[in-house]
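User: Could you go from structure to sequence for me? I need the amino acid at each position, not a summary. Structure tokens:
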């Protein structure tokens, strides 16, 4: 894969605070943070995290780490088209 752009059909998202101000941009990821039992168990709302993957800040030419930030109310996630 030589294209440096995002994959077709995978939208970027932005995180908005309670006042509607953008506080972060990145890529959405849903994470089930608990493995449900196969017998009489189901995921609860607190078992699912909504994350935004974004790059850490670095000096010019230095490597950047990927950070996964959990988004919780009053912050919201909005897809950027």
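Assistant: Here is the amino acid at each position, in order:
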């Amino acid at each position: 894969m030589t294209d440096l752009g995002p994959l077709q059909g995978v939208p970027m998202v932005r995180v908005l605070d309670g006042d509607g101000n953008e506080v972060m941009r990145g890529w959405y990821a849903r994470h089930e943070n608990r493995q449900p039992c196969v017998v009489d168990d189901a995921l609860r709302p607190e078992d699912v995290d909504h994350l935004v993957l974004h790059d850490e800040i670095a000096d010019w030419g230095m490597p950047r780490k990927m950070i996964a930030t959990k988004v919780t109310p009053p912050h919201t996630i909005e897809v950027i088209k």
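One structural detail worth keeping in mind: The mean pLDDT is 92.
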